[in-house]
């Protein structure tokens, strides 16, 4: 029993007590191959330049495997790594790690004696935040999460919520703003998905090759509709080549989180009743969410899978996250190593489709231009001031189309916008790189759109019927491209055409013009086309006007002898 007034010694951990001493110092210009050989002989886990650079040996080995052995080892190192004195307290070290530092160097004077790295620890409980969610949407999600956790525990499966819902909880977002649910299951996710499908109903789709499943249309016992649920087996990934699809295998939750793209996505929420609401956050994602920080899990993350650049732009644009120094270094290396022969064009096009599904896609596109991401389409892709201005035009066009009730293929229009200011060879190579198929390549024609805009501007006389005649035979995407390339007057005419002009028809039917004296045959179609053009120009307004116009036309044809 503690004695009142008695002093007890306090144990204070210092940085030296937490250090991993398996570290070597290497010259900054040393190659991956040479530094890796030294690290292996010394059985080191970390390489440092003795100042502010540090790399894990595992990253050096991966770089060597990917034929990057001649590059400086600092290309795959963390930069601006903070330092602490060996006598500093543990709290100072943890504070640096929580601020986003992946590694902390520990010094004895000027000499690096070891490093401290973030370790997987039991995180805080978010059960309170879960229980405070209110409304029907929250109750349905809570019921589903609890049901999944109980079902998993009853059958020996550890089940976790991951992805957007965890990030939303950390941010304190309302339930009706939360993303659909992503569940991760240790061991057999497909067997769990079948059981959950039996429990909640709905339509179950299994993807056995990937160990994933989805359930749509499920409901609670009282009939409340549930959100879509995506279920994945916890896995590890190994990338044989940069940009290639990974080889996968079963793993535990911490390894599954470690194979992800950004720290803000590398969190999971335990759903088992015995661990309900416990956060698994081995990479400090919660701190990064609250700081609005977009941080890659390792320096080769964007080389490993360059499509993560597009995902990063979506998260940054939608959630207001800011890339940290590590992200920007990883981005520079990924951009420098482009193109990636193992990265399919279909995957790149799919990422553009996801960007265009965002509420404000131009924000993500602006970041991708700033980051030089389109060099992955073609290394010769160049960003100009006009490229950036055109994003404002794209925003205006999509906003106008939405307000006017006009359906637009946003991906096609975005491709036109992004390729307008590239040379024809670069634009053609980009389209080939994206493996644009099924006629899309023909519809995305920047040169054709520019040419149409020039013909529209030169049109004389500029009657509405002439505008419609020019635009009518052209694909809609090319017309929209001409809007992007036109001045104010041309845009007004294209908007009129898409909103009204292309659907305008004669008031008269084919039988009406036959009754007015037009013989059956090709002249009926010509008469209806004439009446449509007269309506477009405002020269006829009623059926009587059209009958009179047909009569005048027939007289003119008769006088010229064209009725034979």
Walk me through what this model shows.
With 564 residues, the protein is of the alpha+beta class. Among the domains are: 15-117, CBS-domain; 120-291, Beta Polymerase, domain 2, CATH 3.30.460; 510-560, no CATH class. The chain has an eight-stranded mixed β-sheet with strand order 7-16-15-8-9-12-11-10. Strands 1-2-3 form a three-stranded mixed β-sheet. Strands 4-5-6 form a three-stranded mixed β-sheet. β13 (235-238) and β14 form a beta hairpin. The protein is elongated, with a radius of gyration of 32 Å. The mean pLDDT is 90.
Morphology: elongated
Distance between the termini: 121 Å
* Low-confidence spans: none
The CATH superfamily of one domain is known as Beta Polymerase, domain 2
Number of helical runs?
A: 26
CATH level 1 name of one domain: Alpha Beta
Cα Rg: 32 Å
Which fold name fills CATH's third level, the topology of one domain? Beta Polymerase, domain 2
In short:
The chain has 564 residues and is an alpha+beta fold.
What's the SSE blueprint?
Elements: H1 15-18, E1 23-25, H2 32-41, E2 46-48, E3 54-56, H3 57-65, E4 83-85, H4 90-98, E5 103-108, E6 111-117, E7 122-125, H5 127-132, H6 136-154, E8 159-162, H7 164-171, E9 181-185, H8 189-200, E10 203-207, E11 212-216, E12 229-233, E13 235-238, E14 247-250, H9 253-258, E15 268-270, E16 278-280, H10 285-291, E17 293-294, H11 301-304, H12 308-319, E18 322-323, H13 325-336, H14 345-356, H15 361-371, H16 385-404, H17 410-419, H18 424-433, H19 440-443, H20 446-457, H21 464-471, H22 476-485, H23 488-499, H24 510-515, H25 522-536, H26 543-560
Parallel strand pairs: 1-2, 4-5, 9-12, 17-18
Antiparallel strand pairs: 2-3, 5-6, 7-16, 8-9, 8-15, 10-11, 11-12, 13-14, 15-16
């Amino acid at each position: 029993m503690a004695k009142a007034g008695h002093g007890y010694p306090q144990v204070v951990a210092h940085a030296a007590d937490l250090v991993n001493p398996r570290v070597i110092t290497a010259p900054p210009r040393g190659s991956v191959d040479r530094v890796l050989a030294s690290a292996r002989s010394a059985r080191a886990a970390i390489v440092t330049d003795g100042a502010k650079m540090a790399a894990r040996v595992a990253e050096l080995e991966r770089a060597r495997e990917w034929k990057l052995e001649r590059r400086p080892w600092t290309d795959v190192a963390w930069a601006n790594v903070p330092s602490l004195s060996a006598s500093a307290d543990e709290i100072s070290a943890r504070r640096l790690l929580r601020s986003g530092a992946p590694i902390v160097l520990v010094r004895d004077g000027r000499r690096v004696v070891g490093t401290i790295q973030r370790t997987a620890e039991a995180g805080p409980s978010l059960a309170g935040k879960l229980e405070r969610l209110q409304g029907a949407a929250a109750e349905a999600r809570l019921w589903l999460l609890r049901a999944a956790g109980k079902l998993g525990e009853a059958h020996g499966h550890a089940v976790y919520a991951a992805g957007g819902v965890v990030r939303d909880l950390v941010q304190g977002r309302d339930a009706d703003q939360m993303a659909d649910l992503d569940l991760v299951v240790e061991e057999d996710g497909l067997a769990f998905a079948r059981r959950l499908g039996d429990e909640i109903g709905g339509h179950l789709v299994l993807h056995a090759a990937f160990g994933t499943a989805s359930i749509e249309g499920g409901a609670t016992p009282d009939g409340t509709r549930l959100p879509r649920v995506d279920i994945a087996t916890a896995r590890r990934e190994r990338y044989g080549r940069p940009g290639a699809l990974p080889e996968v295998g079963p793993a535990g939750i911490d390894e599954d989180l470690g194979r992800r793209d950004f720290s803000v996505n590398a969190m999971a929420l335990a759903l088992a009743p015995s661990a309900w609401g416990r956060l698994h956050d081995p990479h400090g994602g919660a701190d990064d969410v609250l700081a609005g920080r977009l941080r890659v899990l390792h320096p080769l993350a964007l080389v490993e899978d360059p499509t993560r650049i597009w995902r990063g732009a979506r998260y940054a644009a939608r959630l207001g996250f800011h890339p940290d120094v590590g992200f920007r270094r990883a981005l520079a290396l990924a951009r420098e190593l482009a193109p990636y022969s193992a990265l399919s064009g279909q995957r790149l096009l799919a990422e553009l489709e996801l960007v265009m599904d965002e509420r404000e896609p131009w924000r993500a596109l602006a970041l991708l231009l700033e980051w030089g991401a389109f060099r992955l389409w073609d290394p010769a892709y160049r960003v100009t001031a006009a490229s950036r201005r055109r994003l404002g035009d794209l925003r205006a066009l999509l906003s106008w189309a939405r307000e006017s009730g006009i359906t637009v293929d946003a991906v096609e229009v975005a491709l036109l916008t992004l390729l307008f200011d590239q040379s024809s060879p670069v634009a053609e190579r980009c389209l080939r790189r994206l493996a644009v198929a099924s006629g899309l390549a023909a519809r995305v024609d920047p040169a054709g759109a520019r040419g149409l805009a020039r013909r529209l501007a030169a049109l004389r006389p500029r009657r509405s019927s002439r505008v419609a005649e020019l635009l009518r035979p052209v694909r809609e995407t090319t017309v929209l491209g001409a809007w992007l390339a036109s001045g104010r007057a041309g845009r007004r005419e294209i908007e009129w055409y898409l909103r009204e002009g292309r659907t305008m028809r004669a008031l008269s039917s084919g039988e009406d013009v036959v009754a007015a004296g037009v013989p059956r045959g090709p002249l009926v179609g010509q008469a209806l086309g004439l009446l449509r053009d007269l309506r477009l120009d405002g020269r006829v307004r009623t059926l009587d006007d059209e009958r009179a116009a047909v009569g005048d036309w027939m007289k003119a044809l008769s006088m010229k002898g064209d009725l034979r």
